[in-house]
Each structure stands twice: as structure tokens, then as C-alpha cells.
From TrEMBL:
Belongs to the archaeal riboflavin kinase family. One of its GO terms (molecular function) is riboflavin kinase activity. HAMAP family: Riboflavin_kinase. One of its GO terms (biological process) is FMN biosynthetic process. Pathway: Cofactor biosynthesis; FMN biosynthesis; FMN from riboflavin (CTP route): step 1/1. Binds 1 Mg(2+) ion per subunit. This is Riboflavin kinase. The lineage of its organism: Archaea, Methanobacteriati, Methanobacteriota, Stenosarchaea group, Methanomicrobia. It comes from Methanimicrococcus blatticola. The keyword Amino-acid biosynthesis does not apply. It catalyses: riboflavin + CTP = CDP + FMN + H(+). Residues 95-215 form the Riboflavin kinase domain.
Amino acid sequence: MDQIKYLKTLALLGCDQKPVKISVKELETDLEASDKTISRNLKFLEQQELIVREINPSGQMILISAAGMKLLSKEFADYKKIFDVKEHIDLDGTVVSGLGEGQYYISIDGYMAQFQEKLGFTPFPGTLNVKLKEYCFDLRKKMEEFPYVKIDGFSDGQRTYGASDCYPALINGVCCFIIVPERTHYKIDLLEIIAPVKMREALKLKDGDEIKVTVGEVC
């Protein structure tokens, strides 16, 4: 099945914003499929956690999940690449200290090898952490529509390590990447940034300093 076609059709009916009551009959024309095929494919999308459905005697309510919206955002980003649409956003925030986890995870061989191959550099073992201003939260969500580099999850035989998405960015002339782990509890108000240099030293930053992070195809 064409997942994007189904998700796009549902989004155009408003399912990207809130649960919408939709009958299979309504979808037949746009999806050019029989009611049985549509019902089967909606069930599949639900099983893949791309949509959330609530079925009752009067019909069904459908909402596109966060995972479904991310799939649509990736498709949108690909089209922007095809048509060479250049775009960037500026995120304002404050430098804060992390918990030291960045150094551990970045140094793991399964991640480091991918950083070197896919990002084109060996990152400094640690992250620059930036707490976003509240007025940037909506822009931070928009960032997920931008092109990114996928860092695959893996297992070392003892434990499993999750995947991450890396968004190209620029801070005071230094090219870097915002790394976003694919986990549901990730904080939207915090950016974790990796770079080939120690950002605090290169840019003479300390906790409390306010900085601007430009996200997009800027490097």
C-alpha cells in the first residue's frame, strides 16, 4: 500500500490536527480503492502506529500519530530537495550543562562509525546543550520538516541502542548537527548539538550565554 497517499489524504481531511469522523465511503474516491481495501489498509496503518483510530457504532474517528506526521514531514523535505527549496529557521536559546551522557553515547563505536561516514567528521565526544526560549517551541517542531541524516539503531549483542536524526545547523560560523534521538520522551525545549570541535571552547561559551542556532541547509 502507498502509506504516504493514505496519510496525505487523511491530513487534507484535517486528521493531522485532531481526530476526525471519517467513513470509508468518503475515502473511496480520493484513494481509488474499494471499501474492503481501504479498511484493510487503515487497519495496517493503525498497527504500524501511524494513525490512531476509535471505532464506534456511528463510525470511526481518525488522528494521524506523531510517527505518521514525521513520515509526511520527511516526504515534504524530500520534495523540497527535489525542487531545490532553500529554507532555514533560527532558534534562540541558552547554553546549559548536560548530564554527561552525550560523551558516552557519541563515543560508542556503532554511533561513531556512522557519524564519520554520514556526517563527514569525527565529532567531539560530548554535546553542546541549548535550552530553547519558549517562543521557539513551534519553530522547533517545524525543524522536523527539514532534511536530516539518519543514524541507525543497532545492537552490540548485550543491549540495543536507538536511532537518531541529525539536522544540519550553524552556530556563529561553526557547522554542526542537532541530534534528536528517536524516543517519545525527548524534550522539545532542549537541543543537543554535536560538532567536530568542542563548541564551548571554539565559541568561548559558558552556561547562561544566549545563542542563535540556525537550522537548515546552511553549511
